[in-house]
Design brief:
- The chain has 405 residues and is of the alpha/beta class.
- It has a single domain, classed as Alpha/Beta hydrolase fold, catalytic domain (Rossmann fold, 3-Layer(aba) Sandwich).
- The strands form two sheets. The protein has a ten-stranded mixed β-sheet with strand order 1-2-4-3-5-6-9-12-11-10, with helices on both faces. Strands 7-8 form a two-stranded antiparallel ribbon.
- Strand 3, helix 5 and strand 4 form a beta-alpha-beta unit.
- Helix 6 crosses helix 7.
- It comes from Russula ochroleuca.
- This is Alpha/Beta hydrolase protein.
Length: 405
């Protein structure tokens, strides 16, 4: 007579097989993620379009006012073609609406040149996935054009939307530079252009402005080109650090299973092709900088923004000794305690912190910043892709960069 297997034993066997299969899928995904092709797909998600049959030449289909937006194409130095939208600021659109809609009015190019001389302009660098028609991105253009009274130039990087090519770290940096060159060639003064990036776009913004300043560094002071400033909406410090903190769908920690095997995790990271190390370059920026992050961002923790802001303070702080040495010696440990206390006191002097009622808090650093302050605005809400739509955030941008009046 066959022995009957207890029901709980059968359930345990099924659970065991399930977790084995899950582990196998996880290892397979990690292996695939180590290939350059899959890394490109996962980091940029450029093949995820907002919708089918997109009409880039008809911005009005995506809730923008008639003739308020111009669909343009740019040519990069490496012969890629980029699609972009130029959105007129609300004040300019209101004042020139009759001319903009008239077929006998001056050329579109002339209107753009006049708008660039009349109002400040935001160069908007979007995050991964989707295109410039994504509803949340269109809402950013509308908010910037109305509340900040700015023109908006929104481009799709190479490989996105109707742009040609395949995305890469160097390629996206060149795309941002191409957009800058287009604005400058159409008459935009450099000090009137505010660079705003969201998520992946923050890394592009840091890379681009850093390269722009490095290129101009050898020129005479009067010949240097710097934007009005940089705004980083929900940034990450680097792709490598992002892997450690990223939650799939805001729930499942990507690298958590490998935390008990640090050597394996480090081995996986060695295969990173696209690094976007903003932490290594952000401190070198010589323009006013605003970092914005929401506490309820389930994609990228606000600790990334804190790390970027703290990098500016670390230059003026006494260095901490080796932690292992401190643990091995009572004397060093006591000294470490005193040093930590000094660092906290010095930090309070370097970064002026204040609460913004019903919005969040802000820290401001300005020591030795002849080109403007650095601020970290931490909001209570706003999420990841919509933190730039929080009106309190827009008000702070207007105040810091003297826009909207």
């Amino acid at each position: 007579m066959a022995t009957k297997i207890p029901r709980y034993a059968t359930l345990l066997q099924k659970a065991h097989l399930f977790f084995l299969a899950l582990g196998g899928v996880y290892l397979l995904l990690l292996t695939l993620g180590g290939t350059p092709f899959m890394q490109t797909q996962l980091i940029y998600m450029h093949n995820l379009k907002a919708s089918l049959f997109i009409r880039y030449d008809t911005p009005e289909k995506y809730d923008l006012a008639p003739f308020k937006t111009r669909n343009v194409h740019l040519q990069t130095a490496d012969n890629e073609t980029l699609g972009a939208w130029f959105i007129f600021s609300d004040p300019f659109y209101a004042a020139h609406k009759a001319d903009l809609v008239s077929p006998s009015s001056p050329s579109s190019d002339q209107h753009i040149r006049t708008a660039l001389r009349t109002n400040p302009t935001i160069l908007f660098l979007h995050g991964n996935g989707g295109t410039r028609v994504l509803p949340s991105r269109v809402q950013h253009y509308q908010a910037f054009a109305s509340r900040l009274r700015a023109n908006v130039f929104a481009l799709d990087y190479r490989g996105y939307g109707d742009s040609t090519g395949t995305p890469s770290e160097a390629g996206l940096t060149l795309d941002a530079r191409t957009a800058w060159n287009w604005l400058r060639s159409h008459g935009a003064p450099p000090e009137s252009v505010l660079v705003v990036g969201n998520s992946l776009g923050t890394a592009v913004a840091v890379q681009f402005v850093s390269a722009l300043e490095a290129e101009q560094g050898s020129k005479e002071e009067g010949g240097r080109e710097r934007p009005r400033g940089v705004v980083l909406l929900a940034p990450f410090s680097s792709v490598q650090t992002l892997l450690d903190t990223y939650y799939i769908a805001g729930i499942v920690p990507l690298m958590a299973p490998l935390r008990i095997f640090p050597s394996v995790a480090n081995f996986v990271k060695r295969f990173l092709v696209h690094r976007f190390d903003s932490l290594a370059k952000v401190v070198g920026l010589k323009v006013p900088l605003l970092i914005v992050h929401a506490e309820n961002d389930w994609d990228i923790p606000h600790s990334h923004s804190q790390t970027l802001f703290d990098a500016f303070l670390e230059q003026h702080m006494p260095a901490l000794p080796d932690i292992a040495a401190a643990m091995a010696s009572d004397e060093v440990a006591e000294s470490l305690g005193k040093l930590s206390k000094e660092r906290r006191a010095l930090r309070r002097e370097l970064a002026v912190a204040s609460e913004i009622p019903r919005l969040g808090s802000v820290e401001v650093f300005s020591k030795d910043r002849s080109h403007g302050k650095v601020a970290f605005l931490r909001t209570r809400w706003g999420g990841h892709s919509r933190v730039g739509l929080v009106e309190g955030v827009q008000d702070y941008i207007a105040e810091m960069f003297k826009m909207g009046s």
